[in-house]
Design a protein that fits this description.
362 residues; alpha/beta; VC0802-like; Rossmann fold; 7-stranded mixed beta sheet; 9 helices
Length: 362
Amino acid sequence: MNISGRVAHGGVEWTGDLESIARANLWLRTASRVLVRIAEFRAKTFFELERHARKIPWARFLASDAPAELRVTCRKSRLYHSDAVAERMTASISYTLGADSRVTTAPPERDDVEDAATGAPSQLFVVRMLHDVCTVSVDSSGTRLHQRGYRQAVAKAPLRETLAAAMLFGAGWNGDSPLTDPMCGSGTILIEGAMLARRIAPGADRRFSFLDWPETDRAVWSRLLEEARNGQLDRSPVRIAGSDRDEGAIAAATANAGRAGVDADIELTGRPISSMDVMAAPGLVATNPPYGVRIGEADQLRNLYAQLGNVLRRSRPGWTLAMLSAEPRLESQLGLRLEERFRTRNGGIAVRLMTGAVPSAR
């Protein structure tokens, strides 16, 4: 199935059917959510808002007795009060589905906060008012897509699964060469690498909101799951290895890899950076070192970065380094030529993915 899309602010847009929505949730490794736009209209008054909102096909995405959440944002619009907009949207849902509809208002989404565990899952609708245009989308994913289910044990400064996968893609790694992480923490980069190398669908063991839509054909989802599992490789075709001086981090990484089903694909060792073994090129070193964002920390980390650069030249000549960085002064301590691939945030901190070739030691 061919799907053509285009880059939009904050994501990618495409036009497709329910199967394309299911495939996206099953296979996307770097997305946070798959939102389906169900209405877009201009509204400068609450009368216009209510009139259009009553035409939205709410029943296609929400059973009459199912709970729903509205996340509303208003910017540069005459209808600027989000609670008042949410009140009208709630009324339109109740008008369509019945007075007993259970609708609550969700807080604004924050990228650095995990989705809270709740009792009965609620169907999320995202309502955005921008320049007097109201866009209504239904969330097909449920909990955000980075929550694969395996990352329960965490070390210091855990890395989100979607960002770990983005690092690998940003470095051009697709599972055809060795992968190592000398500061692996709870193992997220290595686990995402093993899943990519083995062609494991990241959403295969998750539950998604679209499965509860009244019009969803469960047979389609079952077929896609079967196709995904039949396409998996039994073992990683390349060596994947990680280390950390913190034995607690190695224990966390081992537990997470086991839950992800890739523990047999990853070699984990408790050791400092200075003890990295020599491996022949080519390959990828992908890591998320400490950033030194607090006052005085950057000075304390200079030796760590300098040591990392020296060790890589000795043990990984001809390899590619991919690392997240929040401080250019620390990057310079590596003594490597690095290029910026993308910018994002990790735990609320502005970071860049930097990549570069590792030369031989002089």
